[in-house]
Amino acid sequence: MFRYKRMPFGLKNAPATFQRLMDQFRNGLPTVNILVYLDDIVVLSETFEQHIQDLKMVFDRLRKFKLCVNREKCKFACARVKYLGLWITPKGIEVDQDKVAAIQNIPCPRNVKQLQSFLQTCSWYRKSIPNFSDIARPLSNLTKKNIVWKWSEQEQQAFQTLKQRLVTPPVLRQVDPTKPFIIDQVVTL
């Protein structure tokens, strides 16, 4: 019987299958400080000593699942790490400015397909853009079926605002459980 030793490229279900394996790998590890997406594993630790312990736990788990790492691609004990287009730093999670520069260079969309591509790109950073849905609404409305393409000042303003908000995004931080939480809730009937 033929059996793969590695996940072959090009199989339609390969990413989902591999992510399922990595979810099983992740199950049982501390949920707060170990991030896993496909073949990217990030270990966040408060101290160097804790980092060594956390890495040992991850490497033990890798051995258990018979997974190998490429030593050249590994980085250890870094103060900043790039993960899924974001920078994770001691201050919090920041947008990668190289990606922002690329978004700034996107020209004004001329059709629905280009607009959808722009919205999908910006949507990846929606957590870093306060009121993303409200700002993007005029653009999203243009992508609906049976809507005639009409790029007006309102769409241009939304397009420019999204690009501008990415230039100066807030730094996302972990919640401090020692401080009080304020919940602001709006109810419409």
Automatic annotation (TrEMBL):
A Pfam family: RT_RNaseH_2
Domain annotation Reverse transcriptase: ranges: 1-88
Top EC class for this record: transferase
Matches recorded under InterPro entries: DNA/RNA_pol_sf, Rev_trsase/Diguanyl_cyclase, RT_dom, RT_RNaseH_2, Viral_Replic_Matur_Polypro
UniProt-listed SUPFAM superfamilies: DNA/RNA polymerases (SSF56672)
Gene3D superfamilies noted in UniProt: 3.30.70.270
GO molecular function, one term: RNA-directed DNA polymerase activity
Highest taxon of source: Eukaryota
EC number annotated for this UniProt entry: 2.7.7.49
PANTHER family tied to this protein: POL PROTEIN, RIBONUCLEASE H
Protein name: RNA-directed DNA polymerase
Origin species: Araneus ventricosus (Orbweaver spider)
